[in-house]
Amino acid sequence: IVTCFVITPNVRFRGQSAFIKVSSSGNLVLNSVLPVDGGKIIKESGASLTGEDVEFTDGVFRDAGNDLILTAVFDPAGTIRLNGDTSFRVDGGRVLQTIAVSGINNLISGRPLLADTIELQDASTTLTLATQSTINKNIVMNGGTVILEDNLYFADLIAPTGSGAINVNGFRVEFGGRDFTPTSTIEWIDATDVTLNSKTTLTTQWTFSGTNNLNGNGNVLDISGGGTLRVPANSTLYMTDIVIKGLGNTGSIVLVTGTSQVRMSNVDIQVDGNVTSSIGSVYVEGPATFTVKDN
Question: Is the whole model's pTM more than 0.90, yes or no?
Fold first, then answer.
């Protein structure tokens, strides 16, 4: 049990039974990078860990009772860094750090409860999510790509921010139940469902590549403030159980080529201006209503 200790470059962990425990009144100072290969750092609530990074390889960081299984870098300033070919898993614990992601082939799995955002560095960054809990903090995209290996559920008023792509990979994305205005410009790829559970006001562009279903769950998607639903080449957007408000003057549904399709079922579209399209196809496969306002 450490109360005050300075780690030098000569300290090495040997196997999963090795650990350092910092008590609630203790202070662990790292004068150099500490590699933890299969070992464990236990930091009790109220303990302090300062200095250089901890580089985990299949190690465990127990922070105030929360176990994080890491192949990643822990920065004592308050960040977990996934720098490429890295991962962490949390089975029901709280993640007290910001998560910074760069490079490719990064993975977050389990049931994390986040205290801060997940932030992708740039357009070359990829992050795979295989989480079973509700994501309760924003994902800052910065042009990067998120790839799903499970359904993705967002808490109320939580969403991706910035621009980027989410490869839904045949899974589902579901937003929370409070009215909100997403600020993201997102390319959705192969979503079994992107489900809206409240009135959603879209003022940016959502692109639906591949085969996607936009499920309104009976709610309004208001695009009157400049929102755009874009369907690129060789892509089909199914729209089900949704009210589209504001198509026309500023809101738009854009079919990019002749191979772009929209297929509607149980859809109410409120048109507030002229709508012209000479390419792509629109199919009405179930009840659909077009309400045209006087212009």
Answer: yes
What CA–CA distance (Å, rounded) separates 44 from 25?
9
67 touches 87 (CB < 8 A)? no
Residues 6+ apart with CB under 8 A from 238: 211, 212, 213, 214, 262, 263, 264, 265
Are β-strands 139-140 and 160-161 bridged in parallel, bridged antiparallel, or unpaired? parallel
The pLDDT tens digits for 190-229 are 999 999 999 999 999 999 999 999 999 999 999 999 999 9
Cα 207 from chain centroid? 16
d(CA 66, CA 255): 48
Neighbours of 258 (CB within 10 A): 11
Nearest to 205 by CA among 175, 190, 235, 225: 225
Residue type, 41: I
Rounded Cα–Cα distance for residues 98 and 163 (Å): 19
- Unique residue bearing structure tokens 């760069």: 102
As a whole number of angstroms, the distance between CA 243 and CA 220 comes to: 5
- Tokens 């150099």 identify what position? 32
HEC string of 122-138 equals: CCCCEEEEEECCCECCC
